[in-house]
Amino acid sequence: MGNLMTDNRPWRGVLVATALPLKDDLSVDHDAYADHCAWLVANGCDGVVPNGSLGEYQVLTPEERAKVVETAVAAIGGSRVMPGVAAYGSAEARRWAEQARDAGCAAVMLLPPNAYRADERSVLAHYAEVAEAGLPIVAYNNPIDTKVDLVPELLAKLHGEGYIQGVKEFSGDVRRAYRIAELAPDLDLLIGADDVLLELAVAGAKGWVAGYPNALPAASVELFRAAVRGDLDTALPLYRQLHPLLRWDSQVEFVQAIKLSMDIVGRYGGPVRPPRVPLRPDQEATVRAATEKAVAAGLAAGDVV
Question: Which keywords appear in this protein's UniProt record, sorted alphabetically (predicted)?
Answer without folding.
Answer: Lyase
